[in-house]
Amino acid sequence: MGNVWSAHHRFLGRDVAVKVLSDAFSGIEEFRARLVREARLTARVDSPHVVRVLDCKAPENASPYIVLEKLDGEDLATRMDRAGVLSVPEAQIVVRQLSRALAAVHEAGVVHGDVKPENVVVSDGEGALRVKLIDFGVARAKDEAPFASDVHPSGTPSAMSPEQICAPTEISNHWDVWGLAALAYTVLTGRSPFDGDSIESILYATTQGPRIAPSTFRSDLGPAVDALFERAFSRDAAERHASVTEFADAFDAALDAENEIVQAPSSDRTIIAIGQISEVRERAETVLPLVRRKVRAPLAA
């Protein structure tokens, strides 16, 4: 629906990113309004882990656009394509910071609705791993009337919860709790938790298909992590973690308690005592990598 360009803002004197509505949609009022809504909902959120909106314009005879801060780094999907799945400490840092972003989103009365690796920018600036959530294109506000098209599911099929698929008008923070869990599964395994060769097959897998334990794909994950995701992907939202913060806490606890020794499934191994992982994670948030287990599992096709 939109294209993102790098630019330099002459008046602000800084480099920015500009998201412009595609010409094909610029004459359609609902699409114009949706881009403005995206800017407004993003601007509601005050968090160091959410991209900042600097400006928004909707000229009468031209495409509307959003001016955003320009981010360093790369999206998480690109990073994983380049470097493989994340180490346990890296995964914990990403999930924790993303949970803070989403908690701020929910505090602002907004649901992001499209939590996926492509919408998470990761940077290693000055030795610190930093995460920012981007792209509020399908975000919804609980206190705003929906557009006509909002009665249909919108988002990325592999990141959508069953209720987002089946009841898209009933906006819920549970959408993002599920999305965070799906992303956590992906950064550990290199795979989506529910996959298929078509949109229909992915939606079927999400709503009715079997849940595949992450330990199936990575030998250093075991029963505690499998149990975490069994709960996270319950088809009944009431049985899942109640908030993104609760999920992040459970994610940390499951990985910390997994085994007395965690060993990466690679010929180039660094062994980390589980009792040290919490300390490693805390230190890694300021100096990364202090400890890095090199995992180069191939991504699913």
C-alpha termini separation: 26 Å
Enumerate how many helices there are, as a single number: 9
CATH architecture of the largest domain: Orthogonal Bundle
- Strand % is 15-25%
CATH homologous superfamily classification of the largest domain: Transferase(Phosphotransferase) domain 1
What is the string of SSEs from the N terminus onward?
EEHEEEHHEEEEHHHHHEEH
Structural class: alpha+beta
Describe the sheet with the most strands. Answer: 4 strands, antiparallel
CATH topological fold name of the largest domain: Transferase(Phosphotransferase), domain 1
Give an overview of the whole structure.
By secondary structure, the chain is of the alpha+beta class. The chain has helices spanning 29-44, 76-83, 88-107, 162-166, 174-189, 199-208, 223-232, 244-256, 274-284, and strands at residues 2-9, 14-21, 53-57, 65-69, 74-75, 110-111, 120-123, 130-133, 140-141, 261-263, 271-273. It has 2 domains: 2-69, Phosphorylase Kinase, domain 1 (2-Layer Sandwich), CATH 3.30.200; 74-263, Transferase(Phosphotransferase), domain 1. The strands form 4 sheets. Strands 1-2-4-3 form a 4-stranded antiparallel beta sheet, with helices on one face. Helix 3 packs antiparallel against helix 5 and helix 7 (223-232) runs antiparallel to helix 8. It is globular and about 55 Å long. It starts with a strand and ends in a 17-residue tail after the last helix.
SSE blueprint and pairings:
Blueprint: E1 2-9, E2 14-21, H1 29-44, E3 53-57, E4 65-69, E5 74-75, H2 76-83, H3 88-107, E6 110-111, E7 120-123, E8 130-133, E9 140-141, H4 162-166, H5 174-189, H6 199-208, H7 223-232, H8 244-256, E10 261-263, E11 271-273, H9 274-284
